């Protein structure tokens, strides 16, 4: 599905080229990390990508020693230096980028991702589900699952452990998202067999299939202060099958996929009777998932 | 994980042997289908199984010509002949069985599954999400996702297309289910690559992992009135990895797995901070999944 020859004049909903950048940020080296991100974005744009996804916390790195270190690396969004450099880049290249950035909002920190486009800043997503000791540094996200209307299609964002919660993708899809961009720092999970792809692959495929949405995941690689990351970035089509990746476990690389979002939307209709979203039994779920107990109608 | 030597005197929550029967019912041949089911149940019990799962509509077959045929094959539950024979069998063998049965309730039909144990009838689940032209024959389920307390553990049931909806498993898990039994008649899905396991494998693994529940799926095989079925029955542990199967595409076989449900429950705790169910952001989901729109807290 990699598209090398790509004519921007023909860009439309029907032929979106998505790129996922698998790279290795280094905690604390923000200047170098951002420079590296911009080089990758330029490379992807040069090869025809109109939407580029970068990893979680791509500018700061992931394993902070303490909250002071996290605080010093975080920036207000979209006013901070990283977001400004990113907006300059997307304006110059005429593309959209989703990038994980440590956000500072007053005295609060969020594990956030920013969406920036040809006209500059579009929006921010704040990770809802914090993993492990992220709780020491970050507040849980407080802006739900926003879906951003763009000329490319409707874009939602999830970050890493958010993907363990099917609700995340459901909330994106039921609001009309066509594609969910996932900046991530996937780590090894308990009981992972060595000869199988990461469980994240399975979770992503299931979510794409169940919701009829494209999901584009950009993971980091490398080892940071004793914490390994598992690579295996991937792009999954709305039918649940990978269209690019999983990438390697440990190499810097960029995945590309040409996606027809019009087709993705139509493929949610499975046959004359079934549609993956319309078939939801909201009449059953709503009384149950709120309280955790069923309301029987008989 | 197959356990051939198994001492029923040691049966407890910690060593549940689950069996999934992959077989081929023939539409209309109810007497023969039920006899075949009972033979398989006896074989599984003989090999130590204390919980046996049979396919969807295992007594009637699946592809009805018209509603009259479906109506004639359906039975009231638990009063009908199939359920009575099943209860006799589980009482005699001292085991639990989940079996798909076409249910007649007055003039309504349901694609149901019955749970029967050593003391006879326990409960009925009615399929919530109807696939394709099942809409011509069956009413959509109207009893939510019940979870049944048994000496083996807390058992929920889902049927086939129910598994396409992450809400089904969430509703089971948030009500405390340890294991979800899935009588199914999986058919080929659009865009299925020939060299990969059925998408149902991915959906089942993702649901087990996201919810920390065991999922035991018994599919049928064969071709019925032009409709092929894909076999590949499987049993997935609460960490999301298969413990038995996927089975073959086209052979009659019984899968066995020894499951420690105590361990399953404890594995929902991923680390000092994370638990797959407690980490749900109900504060975010509840206002959103009901209406489809977010309620921002900022």
**SS content category of chain A:** alpha/beta
How would you write the strand order of the largest sheet of chain A?
A: 5-4-3-2-1-14
**According to CATH, what is the topology of chain A?**
Nitrilase/N-carbamoyl-D-aminoacid amidohydrolase
Oligomer: homodimer
Largest interface: A-B, 65 and 65 residues
Q: What spatial form of chain A do the alpha-carbon principal axes imply?
A: globular
User: What is the CA-based Rg of chain A, rounded?
Assistant: 19 Å
Gap from first CA to last CA of chain A:
50 Å
CATH superfamily of chain A: Carbon-nitrogen hydrolase
List the uncertain runs of chain A: 1-6, 291-298
Q: What is the N-to-C order of secondary-structure elements of chain A (H for helix, E for strand)?
A: EHEHHEEEEEHEHEEEEEEHH
Number of structural domains of chain A: 1
The average pLDDT value of chain A, as a whole number, equals: 92
Quickly name the level 1 CATH class of chain A: Alpha Beta
Structure commentary:
2 copies of one chain form a homodimer. Mean pLDDT of chain A is 92; it is low at 1-6 and 291-298. Chain A is α/β, with parallel strands linked by helices. Chain A has one domain (8-291): Nitrilase/N-carbamoyl-D-aminoacid amidohydrolase (4-Layer Sandwich), CATH 3.60.110.10. Chain A has helices at residues 30-46, 67-73, 81-93, 166-174, 199-211, 261-266, 282-291, and strands spanning 16-22, 51-53, 96-105, 108-117, 120-126, 147-150, 153-157, 179-184, 214-219, 223-224, 227-228, 234-236, 242-244, 253-259. Chain A has 7 helices and 14 strands. The first copy, chain A, has a 6-stranded mixed beta sheet. Chain A has a 6-stranded mixed beta sheet with strand order 6-7-8-9-12-13, with helices on one face. A two-stranded antiparallel ribbon of chain A has the order 10-11. Chains A and B meet through helix 4, helix 5 and helix 7 of A and helix 4, helix 5 and helix 7 of B.
